[in-house]
Amino acid sequence: MSLENLLPNQEAARNPEEGIARLLRILKLLRKQCPWDKKQTFDTLRTLTVEETFELSDAIVSKEYEEIKKELGDVLLHIAFYAELGEEEGKFDFKDVCNSLCDKLIRRHPHIFGEVEARTDEEVKKNWEEIKLKEGKKHTVLSGVPSSLPAMIKAYRIQDKARGVGFDWDNRAQVWDKVQEEMGELQAEVAVMESLEAVTGRHGSPEAPGAEGTVQGMPDESAARKEAWERQQEKVLSELGDVFFALINYARFLKLNPEDALEHTNRKFVKRFTYMEEQTIQKGKPLRGMSLEEMETYWQEAKKVLGDA
């Protein structure tokens, strides 16, 4: 294809079809002429794609629709870029990507394109998972959960997929009982860890091996205490994970996304802390020089001014 044929229309597209065609022509031109674009590979783009996805997520959480539009464009660019790389390597092109997606949507919506009945969204999800198990290389329920997902999202997806085959609690009261059970087990293991810490008279890991030396060839007691404390810390870590997993499950039964809930709290904390910091700076009282009681006064003021925003 000649360079003249690659030159994109400088006018804005009038419909989605023209928009996609314009994007693909621009991308082909960039791959031929731009030093940066020419160097990109599947591997170099991967982490950038993750970053763009998180930026889109931030825009969605903030309900900034102009930013959502821009970030969607960035994600679309990456999709088109991967398709261009696939075409250059003779593996697939953008058309193949679209056809693959359309075929999958038709295949997994037999209640629309076939004779299967699905009256609720739960029936649709169940059919989707059953069809997914029958196709492709992944034959287990949980094999479709990406291993690189953030832990909270992964836990939610694991539980949701297990639910799809009937492995789930009957009601939220049972799940809350499980949360309390796991909290009790966590507290019990923490109590054991604290008793081990009390032996050393300090919080945190006991003294390093060799701190007290040995007596007449006897094994170093501090080394044994450290090893016991580390084993106990692993137990606490395991129980803490169980608590998180149970709480995520409870959020699912409340029909709430735990990721959204935690992000709401993150943003609330940042706003309140920033308000507190700005107020203290205005009054010439940097946070580092203030007592916790003084900071608490400003924190309570931030809560009143900002509310639950």
Given the structure, what is the number of helices? 13
The profile of the biggest β sheet is: none
Q: Give the class from helix and strand content and strand pairing.
A: mainly alpha
Please give the CATH architecture of the largest domain: Orthogonal Bundle
Which percent range fits the helix content? over 70%
Domain count, please report it. Answer: 4
Question: Which topology of the largest domain does CATH recognise?
Answer: Helix Hairpins
Strand content: under 5%
> So what's the overall shape?
extended
Encode the helix/strand succession as letters: HHHHHHHHHHHHH
* Tally of strands: 0
| Radius of gyration of CA atoms, rounded to a whole number | 28 Å
Residue stretches low in confidence (pLDDT < 50, at least 5 long) are 208-218
Distance between the termini: 55 Å
Q: CATH first level of the largest domain: which class?
A: Mainly Alpha
- Assign the CATH superfamily of the largest domain: MazG-like
Average the pLDDT over all residues and give the rounded result: 89
